[in-house]
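Incident review: delayed structure delivery

Summary: a single-chain prediction request sat in the queue longer than the usual turnaround. Root cause was a stuck worker, restarted by the on-call engineer. No data loss occurred. The affected request and its eventual output are reproduced below so the record is complete for anyone auditing the incident later.

Affected input:
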Amino acid sequence: MWQELLRSVRRLSDGELAERVKELATRERGTMVLLVAHLAELDTRDVHLRAGHGSLFAYCRDVLALSEQEAYNRIAVARAVRRFPVILELLEGGALNVTTVRLLAPHLTAENHRAVLDSALGKTKLQVEEIVATLLPRPDVPSFVRKLPVPRAPLSQLKASPHPPLAPLPPPPKRPTAEVIPLSPDRYKMQVTIGGDTLEKLRLAKDLLRHAVPSGDEAAILDRALTALLTDLAQTKFAAAERPRPSAGTATASRHIPADVKRTVWLRDLGRCAYVGTNGRRCGERGFLEFHHIHPYALGGEATPRNIQLRCRAHNAYESRLCYGREGPELVPERVRETERPRLPSIDSG
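Output delivered after worker restart:
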């Protein structure tokens, strides 16, 4: 099927090919506009939360199979569209693209949006960035000089070829300093540049761990080092110095979560949201984490490692709405029968 499609495309004249490409681009813009409009509505509902995703971004990436950049751009545009629906018209006509709108969205107001959008019509990304710099000037960056290795020409360019060379592709986005590449299930390659002092620390660790890691395997040493670091960070982040204030009058249960419980939960859940959706998918978000009572505190839940899990802010708020409604826990009766207590999804606390 696809081979036949490619053959049929090759049979088109230059004019026919150009017209076909324009037609397909127009269709694609129309489909993209429809997607953005639907995302704008989806963003106002809890669909992605019920599916076990901590954000609409994760939902677009994992369920809609959008790339991270596509998901980021389309969500930003969808949120801008809710404020200024005229953007949909400009996108459909091709006067603006999603990258342009994403760059301009944080700077659009009810007063300036029409003028700013008009100034960006047909502009390149660099020209749009210049518009943004006008709207929000930033200070000069400090100057510095850095020596880089001399790039080597690819071997394919050194070999003679009877065919004219193709135009080079633009360089790929820069990867972070530590490059992590999946090799097989639960196995990864990590490449990082370190300094001489760091290398000496690694060698010293290998010497000191010779009895426990006779092979001197760097991966095993790195795992032990990170485990110790996480324990130390948890000790610092959730210091034992924090203490609950004593209640006035009769002693009652406290909402306060002890520092040792926070450390235990944070390490057990590996610093990730532990919400599990109705489809069995764990959220796993790492940002804006909060401590969540599986059995709600207002209904008698205790601050124990078994009853506490990490939640991203979105899922913690979502489960609160499931339990208390949008009014919040303040309106929950002081005593609730066991049969009225909600059953919320959770993971095995181990």
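Verification: Residues 94 and 322 are 42 Å apart (CA to CA).
Action items: add queue-age alerting; document worker restart procedure.
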